[in-house]
Amino acid sequence: MIDLQDVTVSYRDNTLALSHVSLSVKKGEFVFVVGPTGAGKSTFLKLLYREERPTSGRVVVAGEDLNAIALNAIPFFRRKLGIVFQDFGLLPSKTVYENVAFALRVIGMPRQEIRRKVPVALEMVGMSHRPDAFPGQLSGGEQQRVAIARALVNEPPILLADEPTGNLDPDTSTGIVELLSHINQTGTTIVVATHDTAIVDRMQKRVLGFERGSLVRDEQDAAYRLRIPEMPDAPESVIALPDMDTGERDAMFTPPSTANVPIGEAAC
Amino acid sequence: MSFGSLFFLIQEAFFNIRRNGLMSLAALGTVTVALTVLGASLWTAYRINEVAQDEPKTFNEVDVFMSRRATRAQTLDVINGVKKLPNVGSVRLVTKETAWAEMQRREPKLTQAMDTNPLPDKLEVEAVDPSHMDPLVRRLGRKAEFPDVADVTAASQEVKMLLGLARLVKAVGLAAAAGLFVATLFIVHNTIRLTVFARRREIKIMQLVGATPGFIRFPLLLEGVFHGVVGAGIAGALVLYGGHEVARFIHEINTPLVGDVPSRLGPVELVAGLVAIGALVGLVGSHFAMRRFLKQV
Fold this sequence. Notes:
The complex is a heterodimer. Chain A is built from 9 helices and 10 strands. By secondary structure, chain A is an alpha/beta fold. Chain A has a 6-stranded mixed β-sheet, with helices on both faces. Chain A has a 4-stranded antiparallel β-sheet with strand order 2-1-4-5, covered by helices on one side. The longest helix of chain A has 16 residues, at 170-185. Chain A is globular. In chain B, 72% of the residues lie in helices and 8% in strands. Chain B has 10 helices and 4 strands. In chain B, strands 2-3-1-4 form a 4-stranded antiparallel β-sheet. The radius of gyration of chain B is 30 Å and the shape is elongated. The mean pLDDT of chain B is 80. Classes of the chains: A alpha/beta, B alpha+beta. The A-B interface holds A 49-50, 71-72, 74-79, 83, 89, 91, 93, 102-103, 105-108, 110-111, 150, 154 and B 1-2, 4-5, 8, 15, 19, 201-202, 204-213, 215-216, 297.
């Protein structure tokens, strides 16, 4: 469903946003993308919805080779994706119903289809009781549910979420992630970039760890923090990683006694 | 694009105009001011040109003032003489009594202070060919032929001046109109850019949910055209009102320069022309204004 081969993204000022990243995500997977601010999580997501282009390497998403995709084909490619943001991205002047319907209207879907699909999406995210409310009248969690409904309403095979719980309290965050998990069970591939330790730990899904633009970790059924095997005889255990200087390595891999430091915080 | 989508886009455009009320009002105000200036300039240039082209027909007249001592019989002799001259179409006598009565009607205070009628008889000589006025004027002024004629004035000088002015206005007016058009376009472009900038979040969302550039562009272009058309409509009304007031003023001061020359361009044509310019300016302005935002696909 998602395939990156030796992808590097560098900006005009020579900042390296992603460096030689190769990975693939299968259909129906649930993946967390973790790492400190500036690690390359957002760039990774932007690559997936073709907001960014790779400087080198190959990106294939939902069967589309994004290196070769024509500009006028990008809108049609994006209809295969649902995108959720930390700030919800709702239009404040439109009601809940209109916000969700907006995603279908702008792709020219017939009105009858819209009338059929929007209530289903709102029902799925538990917002069918407030279709006429405006975003300003909703809590953060409710707004995020509406944003998820908008992302889902076109039934995309992939849902990308950039810090979907970033503005929410822990209980609400849990609810949102459970909702994403529920959506995942219907077959939607889900990629969530997050700083939220608790939800990653709770879900125990595949975790992709980014550090300074490099993919330094790809672990199944994982927690936010890297699990290091008990090595009592080697308290200063160091795992050799390619292309990493000592400082980064120390931030990511610490002896068991201090291993609870989250990746994001350790790099700050 | 289906009818449903078109309806949605038109609905969106008007919804956005209403929602961004203040911004729309600012855009509308700017467009109105810019188009009023442009419209007034074009209208003035057009009218002067029109009057200048028309005037030779109404100003092919020579006024021959008799000496105040001349008797009516002498005046009639002059009339007979003038009628025989080449390039003379008609001769009309305005007697000193008639002129005095007219003056008393127009300037009652001034005439009350006068004991006697100071005006002479006047002949209004109409030339057949207005482009050959000078020989006629010179002939009428010859003392040997018309000793009882005191003075001859022709509109030819005024016509020459007016035609010269018209040429100048045509050249300067066209350059100014072109400059004003570009300035108007620039103002409208910047104003619409502000409205587009205020809507960049919405545009971004549209892009991310898979709206095509054409779908995103349409309501914004429609908004630009709406501002252009409504602004032009208001500007047209202002120019018409201003033109009417100027015409009234000219009529009141009774200048011989600008007579009541009917315009070939009626109020409907003027407003329609301005509306067409407004629509074009709104369309082009909003097209360029949103280009930058839509590039960020």
